[in-house]
Specification:
This protein is of the alpha+beta class. The chain folds into two domains: 2-150, no CATH class; 162-220, no CATH class. It has helices at 41-60, 98-126, 133-142, 186-192, 217-220; strands spanning 2-9, 15-16, 70-74, 79-86, 92-97, 149-150, 162-165, 171-175, 204-207. The radius of gyration is 19 Å and the shape is globular.
């Protein structure tokens, strides 16, 4: 069974349209990213691998690469980093979002890397990880902020291409790619259908250029 840790931005938690008054964060839309703005991914990868080696050696006696951990950049836009491991096939992988790494560089991604390395060390010593006390101790040892979600103002959200809305409760879900299959509101399915898919709660998809929702206010500085 594959287990994941995903360090996400708090901006992307599903929110209900009916609770728009609770969203009081005001953010300016980031200016379009120019090619000259992009940070060097090779340099960021080298720094991340260096942390994997040095923190592993200092804290458990072996670099993470020596313990089988790989590193890569992923395509994520709703999270900053991810620690992936598998109890069935031995997968061990740390990844950072290519988009956010290019946009914000090592200034932001260093803490993300330390966060995910703490999860890897937690897995190595406990065989599992979460965001509980054990992981928080590792996070502090790694010099990472022991928080599950990133709440800093330095990182601006990337506007999604689609926004899904539950027809029952109005909860909005951002999507960066069109879903390949029908999806339903997780909250309503859990509450009313024992967690199983129900057509009654099937998400209605809108293109964000044609729809102004509660969540989209976070990308424009306005509330829908």
């Amino acid at each position: 069974m594959r287990k994941l840790d995903r360090w996400t931005l708090d901006l992307f938690q599903p929110r209900a349209s009916s609770k728009s008054a609770e969203i009081s964060v005001e953010r300016r839309s980031p200016r379009p990213l120019r090619s000259s703005d992009k940070y060097d991914l090779d340099e960021i990868e080298s720094l991340a691998r260096g942390l994997m080696r040095s923190l592993g050696q200092d804290l458990v006696g072996n670099g993470l690469a020596d313990l089988g951990w790989a590193f890569r950049f992923d395509r994520a836009k709703t999270r900053l980093g991810c620690c992936t491991w598998s109890t069935s096939d031995g997968t061990k992988e740390l990844s950072l979002s290519r988009h956010y790494a290019e946009m914000y560089g090592w200034k932001i991604m260093e803490d993300v890397a330390r966060h995910e390395i703490a999860h890897a060390l937690d897995v190595e010593t406990r065989g599992r990880t979460d965001h509980g006390r054990a992981w928080k101790r590792w996070a502090r040892k790694c010099g990472a902020d022991p928080a599950r979600l990133y709440e800093g103002d330095e990182v601006k959200a990337i506007k999604p291409k689609f926004l899904g809305v539950c027809p029952a409760c109005g909860t909005e879900y951002p999507y960066y790619r069109r879903p390949k299959r029908a999806v339903a509101c997780a909250g309503c399915c859990k509450r009313f259908n024992r967690g199983r898919y129900s057509e009654q709660f099937r998400i209605v998809l809108y293109e964000t250029d044609e729809f102004t929702g509660t969540q989209l206010g976070l990308f424009s500085g306005k509330r829908g």
